[in-house]
Fold:
Amino acid sequence: MLEPSLDLYGEAAERVEGLLVDLLTQSRARYALLIDRQGFVILHCRAAWAPKPPSLDSLATLIASNHSANEAIAQLFGEASFRETVQQSDGVGTYVESVGDKALLVTVFDASAPLGKVKLFTKRALERIQAVLDETREAAPMADIGGSFSVHAGALLDELFGDGKTP
Amino acid sequence: MSTINFAAREINFKLVYYGPGLSGKTTNLKQIHAHVPVESKGEMVSLQTEDERTLFFDFLPLDLGKVNGFKTRFHLYTVPGQVFYNASRRLILRGVDGVVFVADSAPNRLRANAESLRNLRENLAEHGLSLGDLPYVIQVNKRDLPDALPVDMIRAVLDPDGGAPLFEAVAQQHVGVIEPLKAVSKLVLEKLAQRA
Ligand SMILES: Nc1nc2c(ncn2[C@@H]2O[C@H](COP(=O)(O)OP(=O)(O)OP(=O)(O)O)[C@@H](O)[C@H]2O)c(=O)[nH]1
Ligand SMILES: [Mg+2]
Structure:
């Protein structure tokens, strides 16, 4: 059985996406992402005016790894984690909040968004996202991804890697 | 733990290249990156020291395409092999679905291979995992070294029961790089089928 990275699908996913859009509008941040702790993107939004984002895979992996490294640092001091993870340069900043123990909410902003606003609206979005997740606690539908999934995926592997021999 | 993302209809797998320092883990990812078609790969991210030793990890996302309506992807990671980076290795193993153990054929690295394997078992245990339950293959790298140890000797140390698929490689020359990746990916998919 596959582990859903978060019980988020269908209508709940749409509501969370709406919350990410609100977050961007209210904070004037560039991008908002919901990623899982392993660095996979669950949902993402970009403000209409924002420049094209960098590779979201790279961004999510680095944020998730950085977050788990920070957590490990806090744990060296007997703390569960740091309360706040904010990174800022002259041009751009990231603000990260934990969503339960499986996911992270990431806001990427620039000089046009004051940090105070980013924090305020990210925290607010976090509460609302958490509420949506709590409401939709029922089990996610287990998609039919059993035997036939592996066979099809295996065929694609053959296609991608050829017969596996080095050319 | 493969993760399924219903919102985006994606299934993601995490594969980790493990092994002693300088055995060629990063070289594997670079070779894969160089040989996979552009549409099937993302950017490679390397967090390394000035002398090109892995400091935290290398990362390469591979896109398999759509399977039964799900976008299916493999995220490849390497760990830093140097002994003192153990905290980082442990973090990288979080949520791992399959492991490629990259062993070094040099005679003076036999012990480092064995120690790295023991370290892998310990770190997996921290995540409540064991090598026996995990898709796992061995790549014996640097077969081009003039004094490379016999493969049987390396296997005797790393896998005395002969349970793990083993591949000989010269990763630097793209020899034996794809085979272990494909093998571990297939094992991961088979495991998924068994559980479903
Ligand atoms: N002779 C030989 N050298 C190789 C081979 N594969 C990799 N190397 C070399 O071994 C050295 C180390 O390779 P890396 O891929 O950086 O090793 P690593 O396992 O990532 O090392 P860490 O990041 O420190 O854990 C480099 O100089 C490579 O060019 C091979 O098949 N044969
Ligand atoms: Mg490396």
About this structure: Chain B has five helices and eight strands. Chain B touches chain A through 53 residues (CB under 8 Å). Helices of chain B lie at 25-35, 86-92, 110-126, 151-158, 178-195.
